[in-house]
Amino acid sequence: MLQEISNNYDLEISCVVYTDGEVPSIHLDQEIINKSQQINAEIDVDLYVLPENTIENEQQRKKLVKFT
Questions:
Q1: Which of 27, 31, 40, 50 is the most exposed place for a label (fewest CB within 10 A)?
Q2: Looking at the predicted structure, is the pLDDT value of residue 68 above 60?
Q3: How many C-alpha atoms does 41 have within 13 Å on its Cβ side?
Q4: What are the C-alpha distances in Å from 39 to residues 16, 27, 35, 46, 66?
Q5: Residue-number span of the structural domain to which 33 is assigned
């Protein structure tokens, strides 16, 4: 199905990483890379480093918990 869609549209896998001082780990295993290539999808990773111990940081963290 994705292969058919990729014939008519540009596909992108988007990842967002939020961190507050910890070193983030970003790993794309061979299966993800191969499947992305099969459907001609780009991979985009956005990294946001949040300031430590701020009200905004805590609010962002609460939002992230809702999505996981």
A1: 27
A2: no
A3: 18
A4: 21, 20, 6, 21, 30
A5: 2-67
Q: CA-to-CA distance for 1 and 10, rounded, in angstroms?
A: 14
Question: What is the count of structural domains for the chain?
Answer: 1
CB 7 within 8 A of CB 40: no
18 class by beta-carbon count within 10 Å (0-12 exposed, 13-18 middle, 19+ buried): middle
Q: What is the pTM of this model?
A: 0.62
Cα–Cα distance measured from residue 12 to residue 39, given in angstroms and rounded to the nearest whole number: 10
- Bridge-based pairing of strands 11-19 and 41-49 is parallel
Give the whole-angstrom CA distance, residue 61 versus residue 50. Answer: 10
Reported as a single tens digit per residue, the pLDDT across 32-53 is 999 999 999 999 999 988 877 6
